[in-house]
Structures are given as C-alpha cells and as structure tokens.
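Section 5: illustrative case.
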C-alpha cells in the first residue's frame, strides 16, 4: 500500500494529506441550517452537516492531493450517525481516487487488537461471506502496549495490502512527559526506542523501497525529526502539526529523504476551516471549499519550496 501512496504523491507532486477533522463549529451556517431543517437539531442533523461539509472540501481538493486523514473521534462524538458519516466519507474519498488514512490511534492486545485491525483494514467473516468494515488504506496505531498490540495489525496489513502509521513522537506539547524520557539501559529517549521497533516491524512488510509500517513524528519537533529520519530511512513519516500547530515548510526539510520522498505532511483545520482565517476571509462562508482549495495550493507551494 505504501507504494500506491508514493505513486499518488509523485503524480500530484504534493506530499500532503488533508485532515478531515470536522468540528461542528467549522461547518458554515448555511450547511448546518439545511441539515437541521431536514433532520432537526439531532445527532443525525449534525452528522449530515459534517458529511456535506466533507464532501464539498473533497470535491474542491481531490485533484490536488494524494490522501486524506479523517480523525475518527470527530465522528464518534455524534454516535452512530457520526460513524455512518465517517464511513460515507471514507467511501467517497476512495471513489475519488484518494488514499485514506484512518486516524484511529488504536492500541490493544491479542484478539482485541486483531478486531480493530480487521474492522479498519481487513475483512470480517460473517458465515460464508467476508466484508470490509471501514476499509481505510492505512490506520494510525498506538504502540505503547508493545508488539502484542502491533503484530495483529501487521498480519492484517500483509494479508490485505494495507499499512499503518505508528505513533513515535507526537506533536502535542505534553508528549515529552513520556515520549522524551531517557531509558537508563540505552541512554536515549523512549521515542528513539519506539523508532527502533518501527524499523523492526517494518522489515516484515516491505513494499518496494519503503515499508507499509510508517510512523508519526510531529512537525513541532524538527530537530527530533532530523534524528528519527536517520534512524528510520525506509519508514514513511506522517507529519502532523503543520500550520495551525505552528509547523512550517522550512521546518520539515529533514523529514524527507534525499529522493524527495519519505514524508507526508498533514494539515487539518488549517485547510478545512481556511475560510475562517484572515488570509482567506475574502472567500466567505459560502465559498469555504474554494478557500480550502487555495489553502492546499499554498501548503503545497510552501512544502515543495522547502524540500526542493
């Protein structure tokens, strides 16, 4: 699957992923009004609003980008209707030729981890038939339960040509409370030990020059990104924290390999809520999707200008 993602990145010349993380406050009033008129101020109404919001952004940007990353929590908050909107979003993005990274951050052990993997990346057996549940192309995985939590995902990925991105160094301010702690045995931070395991797991799922086991390293820690790039040369890095969290293209040069590949940068509210920014305010709420398209173009120019 990583080979397919790389092909999309090369074709679009856009090493970026749009995070479809729709808070209801991001959705323009005319969309929520129409959804509430049809479904009332209900969970169904909220789910319809975010689905229509997503669809418009995907329609406006899908020709420019290789991938999207819906964050499942933004849908789960609306219960079953929200999860239906999540699945509709995944299916619609795939119908537009986009790679879908399910940002689910799952991490458990044994049969539970395998059930998560099957539900999002594999096929579940129902009697004599099999069905793909959510059917994303990649999923994010929390590794802090160890190999017991990751190996079931590897098994499902290898059976279905799918991939994962393992959390190594996240972009949030308090990530260092655990991830930066120094191991007394090896005298290096925990995130480097996780990176070492990512390389080990990745060797079990190579797909060309890169592995189907990628990792997550935040844009807010560029010096750590430089170190981790060297430790994981065949690992694709998913980079959150661009834009709204402060990351810039010039910070991300060392996340890429010499071949110009090796990283894909995520922006969520910086793109989907672009119309709320002063820079794009002239578009107005009615043309929010056009603002998102321009934000994508600006992001591509920023990152490509830095990496090239």
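Designed sequence:
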């Amino acid at each position: 699957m990583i080979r397919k993602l790389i092909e999309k990145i090369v074709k679009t010349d856009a090493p970026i992923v749009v995070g479809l993380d729709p808070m209801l406050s991001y959705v323009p009033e005319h969309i929520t009004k129409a959804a509430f008129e049809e479904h009332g101020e209900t969970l169904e109404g909220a789910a319809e609003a975010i689905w229509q919001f997503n669809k418009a952004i995907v329609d406006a940007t899908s020709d420019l980008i290789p991938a999207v990353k819906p964050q499942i929590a933004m849908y789960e908050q609306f219960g079953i209707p929200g999860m239906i909107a999540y699945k509709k979003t995944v299916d619609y993005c795939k119908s537009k030729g986009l790679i879908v990274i399910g940002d689910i951050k799952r991490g458990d052990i044994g049969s539970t981890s395998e059930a998560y993997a099957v539900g999002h990346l594999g096929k579940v057996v129902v009697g004599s038939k099999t069905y793909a549940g959510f059917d994303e192309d990649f999923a994010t995985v929390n590794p802090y339960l160890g190999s017991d939590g990751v190996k079931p995902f590897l098994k499902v990925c290898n059976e279905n040509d799918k991939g994962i991105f393992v959390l190594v160094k996240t972009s949030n301010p308090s990530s260092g409370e655990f991830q930066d702690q120094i191991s007394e045995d090896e005298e290096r931070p925990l995130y480097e030990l996780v990176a070492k395991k990512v390389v080990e797991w990745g060797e079990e799922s190579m797909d060309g020059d890169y592995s189907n086991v990628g990792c997550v390293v935040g844009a807010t820690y560029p010096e750590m990104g430089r170190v981790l790039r060297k430790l994981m040369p065949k690992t694709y890095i998913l980079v959150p924290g661009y834009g709204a969290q402060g990351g810039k293209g010039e910070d991300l040069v060392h996340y890429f390999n010499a071949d110009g590949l090796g990283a894909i940068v995520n922006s969520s509210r910086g793109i989907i809520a672009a119309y709320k920014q002063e820079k794009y305010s002239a578009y107005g709420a009615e043309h929010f999707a056009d603002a998102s398209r321009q934000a994508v173009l600006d992001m591509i120019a920023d990152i490509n200008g830095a990496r090239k």
